[in-house]
């Protein structure tokens, strides 16, 4: 995080000096430049800013990949091993902030309930966050200290914004990488814990649990690597679902859940809770699904216990079987 902040600050410093140097091309009236003066200004400043922005991003990506590799080494994961290929790709995506791919082989469409407009706006806002922060910060500084600031000082107001955003993004990348490192082993252990009172589940329960896993993916609108690990762990123990079973419609899951016997309803909700927290988040749509699941099962909602499970997983704490039993 320190290295990321320093890289952002250095880029802002160099860009600030570039802005000052380029102002000489704006002529004697920089507040009212001509078209040719603007072209000269952006030919110098724009190119300089683009070159150093690319250099900064390249360094941040390289450094993030190195940090993720060190993190996996500490966790005992050999990324070069064939069995860890999926984990290696998931960690690389976390380091490079790439979206999770859709795996059609599981029969789940994560975007079934997602708004395309909402996803597009979120992506645009993400791309513009630093520029908007710089603009707002510069406007506030100018308004508060305008009479005392010179053009030279204003050129460097981006330094704390760049450094702060880089550190924040780096923290988020490392947090996500840590969650993905823990995911595969946690998936196996949490499936075992959820079924410790149902060693031989019925076919009806297995169908509902397959739907619970698919519904959790739909409610997050993405196929997190830990969801993939959880589905694989479940199918490795109990087998694949029936080919005609619809997995990504939460309404069908809720209907099937209500038809189970009470002990099996509790097991299904425990698995749903595991799926909801294994990506390190518990978003509003997941909470809504859990609330509906408790209602369909005729059980008292225990979202506070689900949140406690999420915090324990993210912190890397040992999750005891009794903790899962308290969820349902």
Based on the model shown, name its key terms.
13 helices, elongated, 328 residues, mainly alpha
Task: Report on this structure.
The radius of gyration is 25 Å and the shape is elongated. It is mainly α and about 325 residues long. Residues about 145-150 have low confidence and may be disordered. Helix content is about 70%, strand content about 0%.
End-to-end span in angstroms? 39 Å
User: What shape does the CA trace take?
Assistant: elongated
Rg value: 25 Å
Number of strands: 0
Q: On the 0-100 scale, what is the average pLDDT? A: 81
Reading the helices and strands in chain order gives HHHHHHHHHHHHH
- Helix/strand-derived class? mainly alpha
**Helical stretch tally:** 13
**Portion in beta strands:** under 5%
Fraction in helix? over 70%
Question: Largest beta sheet, briefly?
Answer: none
Low-confidence stretches: 144-151
Spell out the blueprint of helices and strands.
Elements: H1 2-22, H2 35-74, H3 85-96, H4 116-145, H5 151-154, H6 158-194, H7 203-220, H8 225-238, H9 250-258, H10 262-277, H11 284-297, H12 303-315, H13 321-325
How would you summarize what this structure contains?
The protein has helices at residues 2-22, 35-74, 85-96, 116-145, 151-154, 158-194, 203-220, 225-238, 250-258, 262-277, 284-297, 303-315, 321-325. It has 328 residues and is an all-alpha fold. The longest helix has 40 residues, at 35-74.
